[in-house]
Write a structure and sequence with these properties.
mainly alpha, Methane Monooxygenase Hydroxylase, Chain G, domain 1, 4 helices, flat
Length: about 120
């Protein structure tokens, strides 16, 4: 039994040491002669024109968040659909409540015009 814990301990030590070994190795083999061209900002191979700081609208993030919510909905409803015949009435009611809560979220997002692309 103690031998099994020893193997787990060795694996934990290797897992903790591996990132440090890799970072140390890359530090040793890195190029050590910086110049202004190497230190400049690389933007698709072209020099930037004008202001480089672009602020994105929060609406893009809301759109992505709504997509993630409905993607997770599909992930939770797929096992329910596969085992629908084996489930009882309680599970069906739970699934309907889950879909109703997501529908309320969709209605809320729709009323706040988070789905409007401008």
């Amino acid at each position: 039994m103690l031998q099994q814990y020893g193997l787990i301990g060795m694996l934990a030590l290797i897992a903790l040491a591996f990132p440090f070994v890799v970072v140390g190795f890359t530090w040793l083999i890195r190029p050590k002669r910086p110049d202004p061209i190497k230190n400049s900002t690389y933007e698709c191979g072209l020099e930037t024109i004008g202001e480089t700081w672009v602020q994105f609208r929060a609406q893009y993030y809301l759109f992505a968040l709504i997509f993630v919510v409905f993607d997770i909905e599909a992930m939770f409803l797929f096992p329910f659909a596969v085992a629908f015949k084996q489930l009882g009435l309680f599970a069906v009611i739970e699934a309907l409540l889950f879909v109703a809560m997501l529908a309320m979220g969709l209605i809320y997002a729709w009323r706040k015009q988070a789905l409007e692309w401008q």
